[in-house]
Design brief:
With about 475 residues, chain A is α/β, with parallel strands linked by helices. Chain A has 19 helices and 18 strands. In chain A, the strands form five sheets. Chain A has a five-stranded parallel beta sheet with strand order 5-4-3-6-18. A five-stranded parallel beta sheet of chain A has the order 8-16-9-10-11. In chain A, strands 12, 13, 14 and 15 form a four-stranded antiparallel beta sheet that branches. In chain A, helix 11 links the parallel strand 3 (about 150-155) and strand 4 (about 175-180). Chain A is globular. Chain B has a seven-stranded antiparallel beta sheet with strand order 6-1-2-5-4-3-7, sandwiched between helices. A seven-stranded mixed beta sheet of chain B has the order 11-10-9-8-12-13-16, with helices on both faces. Chain B has about 280 residues and is an alpha/beta fold. Chain B has helices at about 25-30, 70-75, 110-125, 145-150, 170-175, 190-205, 235-240, 250-260, 260-275; strands spanning about 1-10, 15-20, 35-40, 45-55, 60-65, 80-85, 85-90, 100-105, 125-135, 150-155, 165, 180-190, 210, 225-230, 235, 245. Chain B is built from nine helices and 16 strands. In chain B, helix 2 packs parallel to helix 9, helix 3 (about 110-125) runs parallel beside helix 4 (about 145-150) and helix 5 (about 170-175) runs parallel beside helix 6 (about 190-205). Classes of the chains: A alpha/beta (about 475), B alpha/beta (about 280). The interface of A and B includes residues 247, 265, 280, 287 and 358 of A. Bound molecules: flavin-adenine dinucleotide (2 copies), iron/sulfur cluster and FE2/S2 (inorganic) cluster.
């Protein structure tokens, strides 16, 4: 096949290949992953669709600039291991990115084939390759550079921290990760559900770092058990803050503290991190609503809505104040949610929550919205329509309207400048903060973004830290 | 993993104390702070206050009342056994300063939470009057310790089996009426007790601090499970508390939120009781 292609022989038109997946009616009964992934045959068929463009656009579309045509060509040639190594040159967590990247806004958005036809399914191919490599069981442990004697502390074990730790351990530095929760992985373990990102995949990545020699200290809340300054005093030469945007935002409407009203963080943490979906085998309980309302329409909302279905809800509604085009969730997530029966109530916002004598939520009063002029985000601003209030019954509400910066660490770290929303101010290029020897990256700098952007920030900070550690540690902006 | 060095049972086996080896936390902990414990791999995360610490020896003490599955499971642990996770120190330390006369009112297992705080107020040079209460004599805990930690200790039991027959609020009232210039009351115990103390001290216009115990999950400010209303505003108890101005707390809401999982807690406990040969 490869030869044919090299000769530039015109290929027969192949449609974009779908992944086999669990049927909606089956999958709402379990927490197993929805798609099964490509078979080697499907992967090669899809890889054959790539035009191997002279001037490919997809690489620019990828925040970490994976050599996409190259790894796809290797798949096409059947060299899956080669493809895996090619991916890992730029992306240390491909099994995760292949599953959760919003490809439709990145590599696949600019794919040249996509101009006339559907774009190459880059994400699915990436996922296939990484899964194939993992299934072989022969994860290669790369050579490390000779020890530098420098010590790096990484606070937070989300994608930003994991990426940075992986990069710096390979460069010969001693790396310790401090994670507040009892498990490492950040949002990848506490937020994103099992049916979208199996926790075994995240664990494998963390195990790999441990094999490389990264020291992992879970259950360490920096700012409480030790401050950032104390880490410096203990001899860490450089510190990275990858804290994420973990502060849940609420609506600030009357009745919001009724029982049965969860932040998405609480709902998903109970279910994912604490495995409440396996209650009573696992001890942490979770309220199983029959009639569930989820506020907001991002990935977090879709994850909450689909979790509610799997926990046995008869009806799950997403209530969102803007319209369909403004919904921030990945297309695939919205599509999966709709297939599973989640209802969308758009241009609607709650104004208060009602409850019974025991303090449990029984419903919400909502108001309809219309779209006005664009706001700072460029999206049209929703405006309430006077007199359009109506009520909606529900026995469980998940508030998924966004997250902010947790002040716990910043307030115990003098010299660390924050912006007016409480995020850490850091150089866009290299992640340097206003405090000497301290870098930051990921959601704690940008606000809630994506896994791949957090990884990119981790990589840039790792490069900058390496320079600093090797070149006399003098300059600081 | 964290090893239990000593175990002590008290109050008719309804309360249990562990001394645990956790050097980093022992070094850092201050009065009023708590830890989150996850007993084992399938365990829930529960908050427990540190009733004492020994920074040199690298140990902390926790005292817990056996009320359900997790505390029951913990009680089944013996010296030498290990606890999966202990995370801390968490919460804002008690703001201790020299004020004059301070009253420390503890009820039930709240006495364990109160003990290090009482000690701290005394060490800061205050005149400390402590009142501790229990339903009955055999359920009273830490009497000796509280006696040593205060200048004047009063004891009450609901059934009159020991000390004053009645509630801690009866004795509190006597003292407030007695003309002592009480600058601050700290009240820690079951919510109804804290509520009644606050109602009374409000009439006397004496500042009152309470330590709240809503249900928590992460206890790092990430989930909002622990939200409480104080002065009409929502606060995250795990990072902004656990101590708040008792006159501003919405206790009704707190009680309702504490009862959110009664059904599940019973399922969990029944299942656990069915598994242990007792
Ligand atoms: C439910 C959900 C679904 C999502 N779905 C997608 C998706 O499909 N695709 C996508 O690209 N993105 C998605 N995102 C966004 C993405 O997960 C985040 O942008 C990304 O995880 C940010 O990575 P991070 O490394 O900055 O921080 P995080 O992943 O948030 O990790 C930060 C870690 O730091 C720890 N920490 C915080 N403070 C301290 C402290 N003081 N001491 C020690 N540790 C601390 C936290 O406990 C946490 O583990 C989703 C987010 C959520 C919540
Ligand atoms: C800051 C703080 C400090 C505390 N300190 C102490 C202490 O020093 N000694 C002590 O005996 N108790 C203390 N508690 C209460 C203790 O956490 C609960 O008794 C314990 O969680 C009960 O767990 P269980 O599984 O045994 O009982 P369950 O049957 O699960 O619950 C019994 C009751 O305990 C409460 N509870 C349940 N789960 C949690 C949870 N995850 N977080 C908080 N409360 C919960 C609920 O109100 C519930 O109705 C403290 C609570 C807080 C918030
Ligand atoms: S990492 Fe994300 S953006 Fe980059 S190629 Fe893979 S799917 Fe596309
Ligand atoms: S327990 Fe999660 S925010 Fe307080």
């Amino acid at each position: 096949m490869a030869e044919e292609k090299a000769k530039g022989k015109k290929k027969e038109k192949v449609p974009r290949q779908k992944m086999l997946e669990q049927k909606p009616e089956d999958r709402v009964q379990n927490f197993d992953e929805v798609p099964f992934g490509y078979t080697p045959e499907l992967a090669r068929l899809e890889a054959g669709r790539c035009l191997q463009c002279k001037k490919p656009k997809c690489i620019d579309g990828c925040p970490v600039e994976i050599d996409i045509p190259a790894f796809i060509q290797l798949i096409y040639e059947g060299d899956f291991m080669g493809a895996a190594h090619k991916l890992k040159e730029q992306n240390s967590l491909p099994a995760i990115c292949g599953r959760v990247c919003p490809q439709e806004d990145q590599c696949e958005k600019v794919c040249i084939l996509g101009k006339k036809d559907e774009p190459v399914a880059v994400g699915r191919l990436e996922r296939f390759t990484a899964d194939w490599e993992r299934a072989q069981g022969e994860i290669e442990i790369p050579e490390k550079d000779p020890p530098t004697g420098k010590r790096v502390a990484v606070v937070g074990s989300g994608p930003a921290g994991l990426t940075l730790a992986g990069d710096l351990i390979k460069k010969g530095h001693e790396v310790t990760i401090f994670e507040a929760l009892h498990k490492t992985g950040g949002v990848l373990v506490y937020g994103i559900p099992e049916f979208r990102l199996p926790k075994a995949i995240v664990q494998a990545e963390v195990d790999y770092l441990a094999q490389l020699g990264v020291e992992i200290k879970a259950g360490h809340v920096i700012g409480r058990i030790k401050t950032v300054d104390e880490l410096s005093e203990e001899g860490y030469d450089a510190i990275f803050l990858g804290l994420g945007a973990g502060l849940p935002l609420f609506m600030n409407i009357p009745g919001e503290n009724l029982c049965g009203i969860y932040s998405a963080n609480e709902y998903l943490t109970r279910s994912n991190l604490m495995k409440a979906y396996l209650f009573p085998e696992y001890d942490t309980p979770i309220a199983k609503g029959k009639n569930v309302t989820v506020l907001g329409a991002g990935n977090v909302s879709m994850d909450s809505a689909r979790t509610a279905l799997r926990l046995g809800a008869d009806k799950v509604r997403i209530v969102y104040r803007r319209s369909r085009v403004e919904m921030p969730a990945r297309i695939e997530e919205v599509h999966h949610a709709e297939e599973e029966g989640v209802e969308f109530h758009l241009l609607t916002t709650p104004t208060r929550c009602m409850g019974d004598d025991d303090g449990w939520v029984t419903g919400m009063e909502c108001i309809r919205m219309e779209l006005g002029e664009p706001d700072e985000s460029g999206r049209r601003r929703p405006i309430p329509i006077k007199g359009s209030e109506f009520s909606m019954d529900c026995d469980l509400v998940v508030v998924a309207i966004g997250a902010g910066a947790n002040p716990l660490l910043p307030t115990t770290t003098p010299g660390l400048e924050l912006n007016k929303r409480g995020y850490i101010v850091a150089d866009e290029e290299d992640g340097k903060t206003t405090k000497k020897g301290v870098w930051a990256g990921g959601d704690i700098v940008t606000g809630s973004a994506t896994v791949i952007l957090a990884m990119g920030a981790g990589r840039h900070a790792a490069n900058s830290m390496h320079d600093y550690l090797m070149n006399g540690q003098t300059t600081w902006p | 993993m964290f090893r239990i060095l000593e175990k002590r049972e008290m109050a008719e086996r309804t309360v249990c104390e562990f001394k645990i080896e956790v050097p980093d936390i022992a070094k850092k902990a201050q009065p009023g702070q708590f830890v989150v414990i996850r007993a084992n791999e399938t365990g829930e995360r529960i908050p427990l206050t540190m009733a004492g610490t020994d920074p040199e020896a690298g140990t902390i003490n926790i005292i817990f009342q056996v009320v359900g599955k997790t505390t029951g499971l913990l009680r089944s642990f013996e010296e030498g056994d290990e606890i999966s996770d202990i995370i801390g120190p968490l919460g804002v330390p008690t703001h201790v300063e020299k004020l004059g006369t301070v009253m420390c009112v503890g009820g039930g297992t709240g006495v364990a939470v109160m003990y290090p705080i009482t000690k701290a107020y005394k060490e800061a040079g205050n005149h400390v009057i402590a009142i501790i209460g229990a339903r009955t004599k055999d359920l009273l805990i830490l009497e000796e310790e509280m006696k040593a930690a205060s200048h004047d200790l009063r004891v009450t039991t609901d059934d009159g089996s020991y000390g004053h027959h009645g509630f801690v609020t009866d004795v509190l009232k006597q003292i407030l009426d007695g003309g002592d210039d009480v600058k601050l009351v700290v009240a820690i115990g079951p919510v109804p007790m804290m509520k009644f103390v606050c109602k009374m001290t409000k009439e006397y216009d004496v500042k009152t601090v309470v330590s709240l115990n809503p249900i928590m999950v992460d206890a790092t400010g990430m989930c909002g499970a622990c939200r409480v209303s104080v002065a009409g505003k929502t606060r995250f108890c795990c990072v902004e508390g656990p101590e708040f101005d008792g006159h501003q707390v919405d206790f009704e809401e707190l009680v309702k939120r504490q009862r959110a999982y009664l059904t599940e807690e019973k399922v969990s406990l029944d299942r656990f009781m069915g598994q242990i040969p007792e």
